[in-house]
Amino acid sequence: MEKILVGLKRVVDYNVRVRVKSDGSGVETDGVKMSINPFDEIALEEALRMKERGEVNEVVVISIGSSESQQQLRTGLAMGADRAILVETNDALDPLGVARIFKALVDRENAELVLLGKQSIDGDNNQMGQMLAAIWDRPQATFASRIELNGNTARVTREVDAGLETNEIDLPAVITVDLRLNEPRYVKLPDIMKAKKKPLDIVPATDLGIDAGPIVREISYEPPARRERGIMVDDVAGLVAALKDKGLI
Amino acid sequence: MSKVLVIAEHDGIELNPSTAKVVSCAAGIPGAEVDVAVFASSASEIASQAADIQSVARVLTIEREENSHLLAATLAPQIVALSDGYSHVFGPSTTFGKDLMPRVAALLGVNQISDIMTVLGSHSFKRPVYAGNAVLTVEALPLQVVVATVRTASYTAAAGGNSAPISETQVNVDLPTHTRFIDIQSGASDRPDLQTASRVVSGGRALGSSENFDIIYKLADKLGAGVGASRAAVDAGYVPNEMQVGQTGKIIAPDLYIAIGISGAIQHLTGIKDAGTIVAINKDEEAPIFEVADIGLAGDLFSIVPELTDAL
Ligand SMILES: Cc1cc2nc3c(=O)[nH]c(=O)nc-3n(C[C@H](O)[C@H](O)[C@H](O)COP(=O)(O)OP(=O)(O)OC[C@H]3O[C@@H](n4cnc5c(N)ncnc54)[C@H](O)[C@@H]3O)c2cc1C
Ligand SMILES: Nc1ncnc2c1ncn2[C@@H]1O[C@H](COP(=O)(O)O)[C@@H](O)[C@H]1O
Questions:
Q1: CATH of segment(s) B199-311
Q2: CATH class (in words) of the domain with range B2-168
Q3: What is the pLDDT of residues A9-32, one digit of tens each?
Q4: How far apart are CA B38 and CA B210, in angstroms?
Q5: DSSP state, A2?
Q6: Which of A82, A178, B180, B192 is paired with A237 by a 20 to 30 Å CA distance?
């Protein structure tokens, strides 16, 4: 296969304790560590392994967002991607808008496979890959924990509620990845230097001529209902008594 | 008036309990009329289970050979054809619904609302974001069909006792053949289903091996509980993936949740926020799990768990 596109979204790092702003307009992002969406890192790792096995010639990482997303794309290049594209916009987008932009890139790049994360850990949407597959009129295989390419088809094992489901899909296709697909490599310092010379195209979203569509209106953010710290018991007898007390046993 | 089409989840034999929870959510939309669509190769048994759910106005069955496995790629065009006249199309936020509903939304050219936890109005909902660290109120666009998944842990299943009419429905659309079901492997067990069990016992990395997980199963069996696990325990191969509880596993709301040798990472806690009572057993008194536990016991699980099993 000639080319795989991988989506890398810039999100608040998964270790950050996210706090809602006091005016309810969003969550605190000032001075907060930002990273590649963890699922997307796994998608990229898989694409790189496919390349290392000689199954694909080029891995292109794509981010849609503000100029700062270049940081995540540079990290992707340092991991081993060949080329990066930033579709630059400061507008808020819904997954459908992101999918429409991805579709334009898929057409432009003639991609045969798009590897994405199963969900963004900021919006927890879990939508974009499915939407891209729909408007591209191609197969989707979501929540992948194993991917096997066989010429014009792929066998994908998916982590579903009932266990592990295997589907066979024709290519081109969209695959979204789950956590157990692989363990992403660490970036080494020399690779960071090398990545600086790799191409990173910046395309203003307006140049693509895509109508990303209206977005679902965000009215307000609030902190979740808090669970209070309960009691500590000293031993098993205390635990059994406490459970009895609550009528649970 | 709102007309909601709920997409039934099933395994070809039985209706999944998620469907009655989605109906609960849908029925909370002011003035809503709720229909349930059953896609199957042979639908009658499942349809009668759906017809039993309170608040269901009609059950539509769409029988086609292609529906013997519920693949998003083949279901989505059928749902789009069926959705004409509906103001809302809802599915569960199980892996079935998460896979399917965005494909439906995109074919309809609309956004999707993921994980509805509260209905505020016909177009106004609350949903969790940032692994449950924030709750977002959203307003769907007024003139579009609302496609959404429902966070099943936020709803109790609508009761039975109804007998809604069942109508066979034809949907004449071409279906793609580019996606083929091969097989499914489940570590099937006789224990209560994790997503519906009223009691759940979960083990974490601290168990150290799949053999050691035995003490978790023994305790669970004593309690008649379902068994869950942290991501670390699944990653390490102690238990299969379908047992993972949390942001990327199952979101559950049992009456009693017992977390054993689990530190309480935010991604795990997201999955158990709605549990009635949380019990934590951990040797580290500072473990974050104790901040949310109703009952905590600090100590070595390898002595506590067998002792507890005996004491029950
Ligand atoms: C994007 C993303 C999504 C994730 N999704 C999930 C998810 O869905 N579900 C999930 O669970 N995690 C998820 N995680 C992982 C999560 O961040 C934690 O790494 C994981 O929950 C840790 O599992 P654990 O508590 O079993 O292990 P640890 O954090 O290693 O905790 C083990 C605990 O056992 C205790 N212990 C050790 N020995 C004993 C003993 N003998 N007796 C008693 N206690 C003992 C220790 O004190 C410790 O608290 C996700 C992470 C990311 C980045
Ligand atoms: N702005 C973006 N830029 C690049 N990739 C994205 C973007 N938004 C979503 N994606 C990809 O789509 C996946 C699913 O996103 P979501 O539907 O938002 O949960 C993510 O894991 C990314 O791989």
A1: 3.40.50.1220
A2: alpha beta
A3: 999 999 999 999 999 999 999 999
A4: 38
A5: -
A6: B192
